[in-house]
Amino acid sequence: MSSIDSVALAPGTQRIHNDVKLFGAIRTTNDRFGTGERVGSIRLPDFKKSTEMYTKTEPTRSDEEIKEDIARIAREDSARGYFHSTTKEYWDLKKEYISSVSPDREGIVTKATKEIFANLNMAKQKPEEAKKTLLELVMNIEKKGDKKNQVIDMSCSTYNACFENGKLTYAGFKDMSGKVIADYSPQNGWSGIGTEAEGVRLREFCATYNAAWESAEAEKNTQKAQPKHLEGGTAFDAYA
After folding, report:
1. Which residues lie closer than 8 Å to 92 by C-beta, 6 or more apart?
2. Any domain includes 137
3. d(CA 59, CA 77)
4. 214 with 7: CB under 8 angstroms?
5. How far does CA 76 lie from the centroid of its chain?
6. 109-126 pLDDT per residue, tens
7. 173-225 pLDDT, tens per residue?
8. How many structural domains compose the chain?
9. pTM of the model
10. Does the structure show a pLDDT above 60 at 66?
11. How far apart are CA 101 and CA 104, in angstroms?
């Protein structure tokens, strides 16, 4: 049990996004069905507006400065009876702290998605021409079944995708090391899949927040336990 789990919240306190302190939820789904650029039959996530689909950013201030703000909103949450209240400022700070180590998801996903649909069109419209190019060296296009139930699987170093009857049924996007960092399906929409580096930053973010929140809670409990006759700073004369 972590230290934050042992803290008893006051009646009425709302514990929101309690699982945020762990990196168990690696898959995030903000902007699930995309509000950004349309490519082929789908829309990409709006990476600038999304609060969870992190993409690489350059820091504009130090970690210490960001942590000061994280601690501040934790104390403010404690004062209002919240824990990880996930206000806009909270999400913005989280994104700022984590995205400095994120892969270029926006660039990888955008480029790969455009390639996927371009290669699909080439494979469908000019199959003989496609065979004469280097396409087969970087892709694995497999056609199954008859024309009424055609399945096309594509894979290369930066993505893998599957189409059925001309419709995209799955796409996974990989970083330079070959690890999947995002995926898409019509049923589940877009998901960002966290990297190890992002996991470290998430734990640091939550540790900073939790420490400040626990300190604020302890201070409140101390004030509640103080005798009534000492409240208000009453002065007493001391006699020898």
Report:
1. 51
2. yes
3. 26
4. yes
5. 24
6. 999 999 999 988 877 776
7. 999 999 999 999 999 999 999 999 999 999 999 999 999 999 999 998 887 76
8. 1
9. 0.76
10. yes
11. 9
Buried b (16+ CB within 10 A) or exposed e, 125-144: eeeeebeeeebeeebebeee
* Closest to 200 measured CA to CA, from 124, 108, 101: 101
Q: Is residue 164 within 8 Å of residue 150, measured between CB atoms?
A: yes
Cβ pair 30, 38 in contact under 8 A: no
- Domain range for residue 194? 4-221
**What does the block give as tokens for 235?**
């002065």
Q: Mutual orientation of helices 88-99 and 63-80 as an angle, nearest 10°?
A: 150
3-state secondary structure 67-114: HHHHHHHHHHHHHHCEECCCCHHHHHHHHHHHHCCCCCHHHHHHHHHH
226 is a domain residue: no
Question: How is residue 72 written in tokens?
Answer: 């501040």
Instruction: Assess if residue 238 is contained within a domain.
Output: no
Instruction: Give the whole-angstrom CA distance, residue 128 versus residue 153.
Output: 17
239 within some domain: no
Buried b (16+ CB within 10 A) or exposed e, 77-111: bbeeebbbbeeeebeebbbbbbbbbbbbbbebbbe
